[in-house]
Amino acid sequence: MAVTDHVNLEQFMEGVKKRNPGQPEFVQAVHEVAQDIFEFMEDKVEYHEAQILRRIAEPDRIVSFRVCWEDDNHNIRVQRGWRVQNNNAIGPYKGGIRFHPSVTESVLKFLAFEQTFKNSLTGLPMGGGKGGANFNPKGKSDAEVMRFCQSFMTELYRHIGPDTDVPAGDIGVGGREIGYMFGQYKRITNRWEGVLTGKGQEYGGSQMRPEATGYGAVYFLQNMLKHQGKDVEGHTAVISGSGNVATHAAEKITQLGGKVLTLSDSGGFIHDPDGIDQEKIDWVKHLKTVKRGRISEYVDEFKSATFHEGRPWNIAADLALPCATQNELNEDEAKALVSNGCKGVSEGANMPTTLEGVKVFHDAKILYGPGKAANAGGVAVSGLEMSQNSERISWNHERLGEMLTDLMSGIHEKCTEYGEQDGGYVDYVKGANIAGFKKVADAMLAFGVV
Ligand code: NDP
């Protein structure tokens, strides 16, 4: 008899909790996937016998290291850095680097686990990983950020490579940080190779990469709406965050004829009933990436808007796109969205909705696109950046735009294949989990016990 034949979901989760003490985000992410996979695996003895789910929920390896750097006042500072290499069954590890004070091993493990399924869903050959440090770039000078990035890469470079592990940006890691890290990698190794994605256009970056996650989340929403004979045009949207993903999601909603009402940061949110049009979005991009200011400054510039503490989910809108961080939309906020008439939620961020919040969306049977499907456009274009770097070529914006829309439609199709329920309702979480899992699981079966 197979070892796991008699293990049910609760027992499996008990084991996960026991093996990962003090790691609630990781346990939450595994639970969300395991509930769908257990149902799917019910009659599939081979997955049980090979302990596939248990193996995917145990990272291949975690590297943790000290990062020392000197601030502008000549104080020596010490941070902790990590790289979690979750699974490379279908390709080199791939996933972003996050610099934020909230970064812990649990957060990076959850992100690397989710990334494994997301990358599989894109159809491209990429495994799952994630990395970062508990470093806060906010308020630091460019020179301080550079010294930190160089110190971080001085250890990380040993564990990555274009065929091994290809990191990218995430919260707190944008073009500036990628540039400093790539420069240091090149200096240490004396190799120019596609070891990071999200690079500048001048040194091997892909067109369309900055826009890809936000645009992709809107394309996914568009696909979900189309499946019900609806469209983005004429609809209002609430968006959280004001970083890379949020501003590009806002841009695409606006281009498709929707009206964006909110943006936020960790200080609060702005509500602009007149709509946040392209000119205002450009102003926010400049505020966040050049001035490195706070979203509250928006109301000094645009008098139609008001600033509020907290999160934007009590503002009535047809669509919602959480694009800031994990667990930023809870059960009560999900209920508020539904009772205010929200028809669709597409997650630009990773795991922004709590498990209880997700249940509210499912019970109300509104469209709900989980991050691992909806925000996969970013990593998909990163995959295309890897291909361009390997071939020493670059594709143009138009071609990459078409590839992104096709990739997002393909992901939507895979989700409906495994997620469509009686009566036509699509459980996109289930669809994404099963489709993402199956490809990785089948590859692992082929390798035997490794
Ligand atoms: P950025 O650093 O560009 O922006 C992050 C935004 O979220 C900022 O507005 C930030 O506000 C806000 N934020 C961060 N932490 C918190 C918090 N604890 N509470 C409230 N607001 C917060 O990051 P990205 O736009 O790149 O990433 C946003 C999300 O999208 C993340 O979940 C990331 O993992 C996910 N994602 C990103 C991809 C990408 O291509 N960039 C790909 C796939 C997913 P503040 O300035 O105050 O910190």
Give a brief rundown of this model.
This protein has 450 residues and is an alpha/beta fold. The chain has 17 helices and twelve strands.
Radius of gyration: 21 Å
What portion of residues belong to β-strands?
Answer: 15-25%
Q: Which word captures the global form?
A: globular
Q: Largest sheet, order of strands side by side?
A: 9-8-7-6-10-11-12
The top level CATH class name of the domain at 210-369: Alpha Beta
Overall CATH architecture of the domain at 210-369 = 3-Layer(aba) Sandwich
Total helical elements: 17
- The averaged pLDDT comes out at 96
Could you name the CATH topology of the domain at 210-369? Answer: Rossmann fold
Largest sheet: 7 strands, mixed
Would you write up a description of this structure?
This protein is of the alpha/beta class. Among the domains are: 61-193, Leucine Dehydrogenase, chain A, domain 1 (Rossmann fold); 210-369, 3-Layer(aba) Sandwich (Rossmann fold), CATH 3.40.50.720. Helix content is 48%, strand content 15%. It has a seven-stranded mixed sheet, sandwiched between helices. Strands 1-2-4-3-5 form a five-stranded mixed sheet. Helix 12 links the parallel strand 10 (319-322) and strand 11. Helix 2 runs parallel beside helix 5 (105-121), helix 2 (24-41) crosses helix 17 and helix 8 crosses helix 16. The structure holds NADPH dihydro-nicotinamide-adenine-dinucleotide phosphate.
